[in-house]
Structure formats: C-alpha cells, structure tokens
Write a structure and sequence with these properties.
The protein contains 1 helix and 7 strands, in the order ββββββαβ. With about 80 residues, it is mainly β. The protein is globular and about 35 Å long. About 15% of the residues are buried.
C-alpha cells in the first residue's frame, strides 16, 4: 500500500473522482496542480485529496507515479 501525506504538485494531468449529492463524476486534474493529501482518508485504492477547495479521490498509485512533494525552502535574513 502506498502512503502519501503533505503538499504535492502534479507532473502530469491525472484523473480524479468527485462525489457529491448530485452523484459521482470523473474529472482531470491538470499538470502543475497543487494538491493537499491527508493520507488517512482512503476508499480502497483511492486517496482523498484537496484540490482548489474541492475534495476529490485519486488513485494512490497514480499519485506515487505522477506527483512530487512541494518543498518550501524559505530563508530569513536579518537586514543590516
């Protein structure tokens, strides 16, 4: 089982599933999209992700192959 958690961005457009009161639909999340992955909410091979304020399900294997961790390196310097 693949375990993912944290902030990621997609290197390649990937399919996702959105469930709502209106039903279930598939959509494509574009390349370069930023995702937040909790890591604990799963539905079989699907992992819950947050994208653009929407809760989606994506295949963990797809994310492992197509997503990269966002590494924020912030340096603070004192002004002279």
């Amino acid at each position: 089982m693949v375990y993912l958690e944290g902030d990621y961005y997609l290197e390649k457009a990937t399919v996702a599933v959105e469930r709502s009161r209106q039903g279930t639909r598939c959509l494509q999340v574009p390349q370069g999209a930023k995702l937040q992955i909790n890591g604990f909410h799963r539905d079989g091979p699907l992992v819950e992700v947050l994208y653009a304020g929407r809760v989606l399900l994506m295949f963990a294997e797809d994310l492992a192959e197509r997503a990269q961790v966002v590494e924020d390196h912030v340096c603070f310097r004192k002004r002279a």
